[in-house]
Please model this.
Amino acid sequence: MTDEGPGFPADFLPHAFDRFTRAESSRTMPGTGLGLALVTASHDGTARADTMAPRGATVALDVSC
Model:
């Protein structure tokens, strides 16, 4: 998935999929920081992200079916 939102700083990448963790730029928006962590864990998958701040981010989830 790629979006054109605010993105996040590169130093956030190691924590992007930690539970209850949200980038500073997303804290004014609703959410808990659980979504991607839960989807990845419940499907025994892996996740990776790349930031293009301030012009968005790309997130990829690899999950088993």
Remarks:
- DSSP finds one helix and two strands in the chain.
